[in-house]
Specification:
The chain is an alpha+beta fold. 37% of the residues lie in helices and 21% in strands. A hairpin with a 2-residue loop joins β4 and β5. The protein starts with a strand and ends in a 7-residue tail after the last strand. Bound molecules: calcium ion. Residues 6, 174-176, 214-215 line the site of calcium ion (CA).
Length: 229
């Protein structure tokens, strides 16, 4: 399981929320590892998803509840929230979940594909045809996130399942990368850097060279074979 969480709500709150999210998603994924078929689960599950999609969904739900619990009675943490994008791998089977504007990309056969759709104000405006991507990049509201793990009781998580292929690479990243470099620039860095650490270093270098207004988190995975990743 791999996850990127980008905290919001001031320095302290953002750090607490993102750490709670990562810890709780990991806890749930670990504690459900031995569970059998979905019909034996003690918790409600989404019939449209397989086992691993449901494990991530449960992880995000529990992370959201933990954040709500921590905010109760902690004045300095009120309003804290975090994005999260997580991938859970079982061989080449991948479950993917996200909330907020952190992204997952797939790089396959020299093509970069975005696997997630941002939960952000500018993304909603673009989908409605009200903003171009270039205008969204410069928009003063470009950092407004419309969904997050914020402790609210109406959490909606996007969960998907996909089959990977040997040679695929996955990128999980915060908006500190994707709000500065466009998809074609990210694809160029993928093409030029086969070493995963060098690729991540290059993402950070180029995002900083382009102004680097935000923290930059990037995580690269390479699917080596059908037996592992
Ligand atoms: Ca950010």
């Amino acid at each position: 399981m791999f996850v990127v969480a980008d905290g919001m709500g001031g320095h302290v709150g953002g750090e607490v929320a993102s750490e709670l999210a990562v810890t709780e998603i990991q806890n749930i994924v670990e504690s459900t590892a031995e569970l059998g078929p979905l019909d034996t689960w003690p918790v409600p599950f989404d019939q449209s998803l397989g086992r691993d999609g449901n494990r991530l969904q449960a992880g995000f739900d529990n992370a959201n509840r933990r954040i709500a619990q921590h905010m109760e009675g902690a004045e300095n943490l009120r309003g804290m929230a975090t994005t999260a994008v997580a991938v859970l791998l079982d061989g080449v089977q991948a479950a993917l979940a996200h909330v907020g504007d952190s992204r997952a990309y797939l790089y396959r056969a020299d093509q970069l594909t975005r696997l997630t759709s941002d939960h952000s104000w500018v993304e909603e405006q673009m989908r409605a045809g009200m903003l171009t991507e270039a205008a969204a990049r410069e928009h003063p509201w470009r950092n407004i996130v419309t969904k997050a793990l914020s402790g609210s009781d109406d959490l909606q998580v996007d969960v998907a399942e996909l089959e990977l292929q040997p040679g695929d690479r996955l990128l999980l990243c915060s908006d500190g990368l994707s709000s500065v470099l466009n998809d074609s620039e990210i694809g160029d860095i993928m093409a030029a850097n086969h070493d995963l650490q060098e690729g991540c270093d290059e993402f950070v270098n180029q995002a900083n060279a382009a102004g680097g207004p935000d923290n930059i988190t990037s995580l690269l995975l390479h699917v080596a074979s059908a037996a592992g990743s």
